[in-house]
Amino acid sequence: MTQVVDELARRLVADTVPPSAEHRDRADQARRQALLRLRVLAGVKEAVRHLEDQAAHAAAAGGAGYPEIGQAMSMSRQGARRRWPGLITNSAPHPTHRPTPRST
């Protein structure tokens, strides 16, 4: 997966930075491309994080708990709780035990 994202970032950089008509110093051009690649990867990371948040909320809405969400994210239940505090609530009403009336 890392290679796929890296290749995507490289292609985005190549599409963004047109080849220079000037003969720049190779080190300068390599530095600029590396910095742009970092900027692209930071944007990809932010987008992925947003999509993870959406998927976690959808999973919770579908009844998944922290253990399942954590497992899907390769993290512990506690890690999932720290990442999405309050995602899973115990707001569902719990049935109360009512004694049955006795016939006398």
Q: Could you give a quick summary of the protein structure above?
A:
The protein is mainly alpha-helical.
Explain how this protein is built.
The chain is mainly alpha-helical and 104 residues long. It is built from four helices and no strands. It has helices at 2-16, 26-61, 66-72, 77-83. The radius of gyration is 25 Å and the shape is rod-shaped.
Radius of gyration of CA atoms, rounded to a whole number: 25 Å
Judged by helices, strands and strand pairing, the structural class is mainly alpha
* Series of secondary-structure elements, N-terminal to C-terminal: HHHH
β-sheet strand percentage: under 5%
Q: Which stretches are low in confidence, meaning pLDDT under 50 for 5 or more residues running?
A: 92-97
Number of strands: 0
The rough form would be described as rod-shaped
How many helical stretches? Answer: 4
Mean pLDDT, as a whole number? 82
Largest sheet: none
| Spatial gap, N to C terminus | 71 Å
Helix content: 55-70%
